[in-house]
Amino acid sequence: MKEIRKIIATYDQLDLTEEKVALAAVVNVEESSYRRIGARMLVRSNGLWTGGISGGCLEGDALKRSQMAIFKGEASKVVYDTMDDDNNQIGVGLGCNGRIEVVFTPIDAADPNNEIEQLKKIATAEVPSVMLKIIDAPPGSQLLGQKRLVEQDTPAIDFVGIDPLVLQESVAATWEQRRARIIQTQAEGGAVTLLVEFIRPETRLIVVGDNYDVSAMLGVANELGWECYVVGKAKKLTKEIYQLAREVVDFAQADTLPVHDYTAVLLMSHDYNRDKQMLPIFANQHPRYLGMLGPRKRFQNMQNDLKEMNLASLPFFYSPTGLEIGAESPHEIALSIAAEIIAVFRQKKGGFLKDKEGAIHERAGQVSKGNIPAK
Q1: Which residues of the chain fall short of a pLDDT of 50?
Q2: Same domain assignment for residues 128 and 266
Q3: Together in a domain, 213 and 130
Q4: Is the CB of residue 288 less than 8 Å from the CB of residue 316?
Q5: In terms of DSSP H, where are the helices of the chain?
Q6: pTM
Q7: What is the per-residue pLDDT across 321-343, written as a single tens digit (0 to 9) for each?
Q8: What share of the chain is helix, strand, coil (3-state, %, to 5)?
Q9: 79 lies in which domain range?
């Protein structure tokens, strides 16, 4: 979401009567790739860009492709294939050993539903979003790059003539599995490949505490682009904390802070009674992650209190909090906690990648719908 916000900010600062832009987006990946589906890069006609679609390997070529899309006024797709590790295969030296599909779409500033405007709606949403995008289509059909933002529980989806039942089924599965899906189906202009992209809302972090280590936690969270809130005593909080947090409230107003499915709450007051007071306020709102700073013994001492509050079994409660990386300083501890939050939200164990068997990332769900007739 941080990258999307940067793209939006750049777009809003441009004089679009003087220059044009295109959006390069990763729409499919096989095997190894530094970036995944959803990585985006906004390219201006003057050659400047914001965001990225790789670790730096593809951006030079993507710049040229984007400018070509701007010049022609039509979307295009390029497949960067380095499965055989051949540096001459696509003209850029990649070492990823993967297959990366990128769609380049010129942005029409006069279109209120262009992809950047759609991303603006996604950036302010508090629930996941699903974006439909045609990533392969018959030449001349003008379908490539067509997109539509779908809100959750939309009763009927009308998109480029694709069977609404196919769309409804694919969108529902995408929300349930929380990952992108790619389907082959029929549209008004012929057979198409459709990306059903799952886009998470911005991670929200609520930090409960007012000691000096709060600044370190907020610093890491802000670098990740998270939306930060703080609960603490105003007189103990520094100017830096007020600059990093979207909102600061006193302990008495803790229950006024918004909690949704992508909220992480961190109790780090270093005060047993304060944490015990705050814990039920947030636990009863069922955040995805609720962590409590402190040693295991402190958590064990709280077990009886939790039973009295009917909070003895909380699957989203983590204490001690953080991944085991040997963290010592406030910033290292903050890093270990942020890594654990990401692992929980992505449903990963947080181990060493060298010990993982198979691909680092899961592929998008592939579903064949070739027998679905066009409308």
Answers
A1: 88-89, 91-93, 370-375
A2: no
A3: no
A4: yes
A5: 2-13, 59-72, 115-123, 164-177, 213-223, 239-244, 272-283, 296-308, 330-345
A6: 0.82
A7: 999 999 989 999 999 999 999 99
A8: 30, 25, 45
A9: 2-199
